[in-house]
């Protein structure tokens, strides 16, 4: 479903408030809750309440200037105090990543965020034991489009965390001037139990040393569509939408956002912010309905299965300038 790297989500339920439990195992969940509470008392970092979505983060050597607070998502997204210390990768923008106007599509941006996440895991201590993650929310702020033929530099760092989840920041800059800022709220998952799991001390150590927010809590930024004037069309899933873990990959949800934007090209006016929040699993074989609603200054998107929202999205104008950050190496 909404993952970077995740156990198939049929074993996990995540409520709107962020509470997580194994489906059909409430007694076991309650017992586990007591164990986790005792463990928290022994932990050097006390996590957020158990009803906050569990999320860990990939290590980053770049610090935080604060977590998402009032409003839920900061504008602009928090900057990195020392961008040169962030984990960095670069690669060319390929044909399959762009649209008819050579623009790097949002679903390709989502894949880039996954790719640098995997690379980051390979570069940190205990990364090999932290391979299962769920994306709860992704924010993509487009200031200047990155285009086909450009070379994009990505920098990634932790902005805030608790001991089971984190908020990761990613900056994308093209050598030709493109600029995108992104944030991902990630949950660390035990691949055997299929539930949020604590990160190891060694894995968290660099993040703890370089961030100030260590009690990160989940708070949703979007709500279900509640208006009558909604466009509805089927959004058929394809075999290629399912990844090695058996669920619909995170980037596919961004393809749905691109579909909605195709009918409302004015919403691509720069700069703009696009958000996807995941509220339930989408599995192969589900009959997905793409629901779209336009409001003054905002495009709202919702993916439904059996009349229930599984993902919420919005695209709206972005006000203000991005905080200063590093330019790509040439």
Notes on the structure:
This protein has helices at residues 26-42, 106-122, 201-210, 250-262; strands at residues 3-5, 12-14, 20-22, 87-92, 133-144, 151-161, 165-174, 179-190, 195-196, 231-234, 272-278, 288-295, 298-305, 308-317. The protein has 330 residues and is an alpha+beta fold. Strands 1, 4, 5, 6, 7, 8, 9, 10, 11, 12, 13 and 14 form a twelve-stranded antiparallel sheet that branches. Helix 2 runs antiparallel to helix 4.
SSE blueprint:
Elements lengths: L2 E3 L6 E3 L5 E3 L3 H17 L44 E6 L13 H17 L10 E12 L6 E11 L3 E10 L4 E12 L4 E2 L4 H10 L20 E4 L15 H13 L9 E7 L9 E8 L2 E8 L2 E10 L13
Antiparallel strand pairs: 1-5, 2-3, 4-6, 5-8, 5-11, 6-7, 7-8, 8-9, 10-12, 11-14, 12-13, 13-14
Helix pairs in contact: 2-4
Total beta strands: 14
Q: Mean pLDDT score, rounded? A: 82
Number of helices: 4
Largest sheet: 12 strands, antiparallel
Global geometry: globular
H/E series, N to C?
EEEHEHEEEEEHEHEEEE
Portion of residues in helices?
Answer: 10-25%
Which structural class is indicated by helix and strand composition?
alpha+beta
Low-confidence stretches: 1-69
Radius of gyration: 19 Å
Distance between the termini: 37 Å
Strand composition percent: 25-35%
Provide a quick synopsis of the model:
This protein is of the alpha+beta class. The chain has helices at 26-42, 106-122, 201-210, 250-262; strands at residues 3-5, 12-14, 20-22, 87-92, 133-144, 151-161, 165-174, 179-190, 195-196, 231-234, 272-278, 288-295, 298-305, 308-317. Strands 1, 4, 5, 6, 7, 8, 9, 10, 11, 12, 13 and 14 form a 12-stranded antiparallel beta sheet that branches.
């Amino acid at each position: 479903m909404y993952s970077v790297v995740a156990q198939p989500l049929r074993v996990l339920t995540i409520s709107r408030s962020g509470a997580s439990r194994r489906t059909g195992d409430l007694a076991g969940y309650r017992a586990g809750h007591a164990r986790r509470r005792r463990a928290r008392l022994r932990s050097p970092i006390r996590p957020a309440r158990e009803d906050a979505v569990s999320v860990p983060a990939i290590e980053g050597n770049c610090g935080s200037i604060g977590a998402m607070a009032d409003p839920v998502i900061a504008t602009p997204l928090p900057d990195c105090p020392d961008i040169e210390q962030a984990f960095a990768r670069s690669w060319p923008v390929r044909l399959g990543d762009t649209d008819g106007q050579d623009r790097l599509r949002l679903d390709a941006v989502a894949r880039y965020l996954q790719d640098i996440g995997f690379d980051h895991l390979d570069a940190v201590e205990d990364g090999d034991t932290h391979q299962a993650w769920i994306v709860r929310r992704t924010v993509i702020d487009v200031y200047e489009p990155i285009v086909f033929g450009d070379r994009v530099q990505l920098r990634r760092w932790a902005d805030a965390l608790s001991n089971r989840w984190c908020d990761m920041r990613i900056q994308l800059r093209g050598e030709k001037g493109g600029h995108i800022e992104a944030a991902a709220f990630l949950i660390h998952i035990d691949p055997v139990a299929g539930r949020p799991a604590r990160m190891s001390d060694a894995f968290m150590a660099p993040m703890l040393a370089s961030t100030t927010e260590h009690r990160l809590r989940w708070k949703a930024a979007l709500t279900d569509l509640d208006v009558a004037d909604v466009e509805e069309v089927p959004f058929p899933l394809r075999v290629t939408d399912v990844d090695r873990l058996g669920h619909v990959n995170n980037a596919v949800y961004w393809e749905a956002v691109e579909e909605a934007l195709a009918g409302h090209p004015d919403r691509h006016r720069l700069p703009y912010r696009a958000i996807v929040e995941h509220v339930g699993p989408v599995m192969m074989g589900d009959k997905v309905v793409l629901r779209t609603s336009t409001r003054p200054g905002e495009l709202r998107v919702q993916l439904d299965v059996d009349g229930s929202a599984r993902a919420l999205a919005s695209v709206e104008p972005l006000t203000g300038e991005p905080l200063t950050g590093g330019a790509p190496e040439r």
